[in-house]
Amino acid sequence: MAVRYNHKNYSSYLNDEPMPDAASEKEQGNEYFKQKKFAEAIECYSRSIALSPTAVAFANRAMTYLKLRRFEEAENDCTEALNLDDRYVKAYSRRITARKGLGKLKEAMDDAEFAVSVDANNPELRKQYSEIKALLMEKMAKKSSVLAKHTISEFDKAGDKKDMSSHPLSDPQKDSFMEVDSSVRAAAGIRECSGGVSKGASGVGLKDNNMQQSRDAKQKSGPEISVQDLASRAASRYMSSTVKSVKTPKTAYDFEVSWRAISDDPAQQIQLLKSIPPASLPEIFKNALSSAFLIDIVKCTASIFRDDAELAVSILDNLVKVSRFDLIIMCLSPMHKSELRKIWAQTFLAETASTDKVEALRRLQSKYVEGGWHQEDMLALS
Prior knowledge:
The termini are far apart. A hairpin with a 5-residue loop joins strand 1 (198-199) and strand 2 (205-206). Among the domains are: 22-145, Alpha Horseshoe (Serine Threonine Protein Phosphatase 5, Tetratricopeptide repeat); 246-377. It has helices at 7-16, 22-34, 38-51, 55-67, 71-84, 89-101, 105-118, 123-165, 171-180, 182-187, 208-220, 227-244, 252-261, 266-274, 281-285, 291-305, 309-319, 325-330, 334-348, 355-368, 375-381; strands at residues 198-199, 205-206. It is built from 21 helices and two strands. It is flat. The relative contact order is 0.05. The protein has a two-stranded antiparallel ribbon. Helix 14 (266-274) packs across helix 16 (291-305). The protein has 382 residues and is mainly α.
């Protein structure tokens, strides 16, 4: 007997069952997380991401991975979250934890520095910053200590060699020395010396007292190198090599990390800025450009302007296209506004440039210099 379906009732049944959506899957994942059902939570977050990927869903799944000590998956999810929202401090906080678990202390420190700059009053971020900084310093101290001990060991070995060469050798030592390194014996000078010379069995003249005194004088000359000095030098070399390893940034986060790393080297900052195609600046910064970095970039652009006016104008022109640029300018401190006016007066409009560049700079002046010119700007131009 054929079964007849009531299509109306069947359709009504389907409509009564809510279709899963990204938000409900995420909320269900949160419930599982609270119940410590982490495997089920991960499944829900994964379905939410598949339906509609969001920074929150990635960050929540990362938190669940952290609970399972799956640090690599947690790090990857945090990175995906930050690709969607590079100012999401929870994603930075969780990636700091993941990178700490993976032993990536330098990368964790980069995250901590940037996150604190975004949300300076966040107590959890400040705590993480302090913890990572302490661990990084401890790691550097251990590395420096090992290097210092190795250096001292090399000094000791060199001293032992000098001691051996400045004393007469017994017959077995002498024979071995002559067999293995006869050229050194010849270079030592097999010669007869008068007064205060004692001869070994080989006939090599050795001025024991004089050489001992000379060696003592050499050891005493100059300040003694302590373990602390060697450790300090090693730490400086380590930090130097770390600081110089910068790359062309692709996000606001990358830019800030690289820029901070070379904050004491204006020449490298210029090279870093030159390495970025000006047209990509709006995409890099999106809505994450801070007033402090805007001022730094404009100062650096002023240095570029003297050698490459076209590039400098292009940088300034594309910065204006960054999201919320007008709001950043409006919220600048009086000191920063004054700095921009002086840069425009003393560099951009004071230097010799082609007519089209001057016109472009005057047009951009209204974007950067709020309220037009002040009396001191006119004096600077005269």
